[in-house]
Amino acid sequence: MNAITKNLGSVIPVSSDPWKLRTLTDTILRMIWSENQVSRIEIAKRMGLARSTVTEIVKELINSGFVVEVGTGESKGGRRPIVLEFQHEMHCIIGVDIGATHISVAMTDLRGNMIHWEERKHPVRSDPEGSLKLVFELCDLCLAGRKTPSQKLLGIGVALPSPIDPVHPGWISELVLPAWHGRNEIELLGQKYGVPVYVDNDANLGAIAEHRWGAGRGVNDLIYIKLSHGVGAGFILGGEIYRGASGAAGEIGHFPIDIYGKRCVCGMRGCLVNYVGADALKIRARQLFEEYPESVLAGQNPRIRDIEDAAINGDTLAVRVVREAAEYIGIAIAGWLNLMNPSMVILGGDLARTGDLLTDPLHEKSRNCALVKSVENIQIKISELGSQAIALGAATLVIEEVFAEPNILRQRTHPGVI
Ligand SMILES: [Zn+2]
Questions:
Q1: Cα(15) to centroid of ligand 1, in Å?
Q2: I need a labelling partner for 382 at 20 to 30 A (CA). Which of 18, 223, 345, 364 fits?
Q3: Residue percentage of the chain with pLDDT more than 70
Q4: Where are the domains of the chain?
């Protein structure tokens, strides 16, 4: 029994160094994937290898079906080089986003292209059994949407709105999802589909997705903030996700804004989530009804979407709710800007649709609360991937693991697997 099959049916801790590669073949395989199109000559030049060595290895990769020749490239003197291309549609990946009140499932190819998408509202917090049943149902729908039945599933990534313990990645925090505490049914996904399952925190996966495919492409130091029922952040530092010693990095929702403020579920006072979490925003909107009787929201029981729509249409109450939220986030991230000096903040989740109404006051507040040098080059952007960011990040986590352990690819490339 090898390492991969031994791990089926259990949630696998993600690699501490996902790009650590084992062999020359694996390195070349990843380079062809990463570049999409590259020639043997280019590979030999970049890796300092003899052309004959590259030719031998590429021959093996072509025979395995991972790589094909797709014509000739531009000549830089001498013969035109043959261009190699990675076969990213040969396999598929599933990314599952389990939120507090929704479940989304993405199926992608190995380049993160969306093949199929499913999403449903569901009371995830109070219904673990029903939630898992729904995850299975949506995964089945995605697999039925494969381009061809021969497109093999390589793995499943799962996003949870909870810190993920690197030693027990399938176990879920009782603070965030009390009904799920101590349950590790995520492992059932691996057993049902016969593939490795990887789990990470949702904001970490949003950061990974935006860094690789979205607003943060080419940016090596960024923070992604997800506003929802909870508030979380994912840090990309030096081009890699930073998870912290016990998987709790980025718990910005429990950053204290006011040490004399409201008591939080975590036991502390004045945490950010109590000011900008979905419930707090709805309460704040209702508190302002008296002051803004002309507001379209006045007398209603507004949802976050209603507050967003009203703000976009210039409703002064809604604009104030968004501005106040932006200012609280600005205070929370100012310290992080001083400590880490990132070049980008990406906002996803609730209120992201309000665009400049959110980013402008956030920018101003962080500028007022952080050192000039820490904020002079900061870009504050709205997520490009929107509501698909987290599930896409879960799929991307699997892609990164596949290229850290390409044997997963080799094992899934024979007939008979799902
Ligand atoms: Zn708290």
A1: 29
A2: 18
A3: 89
A4: 3-86, 91-207+389-411, 217-384
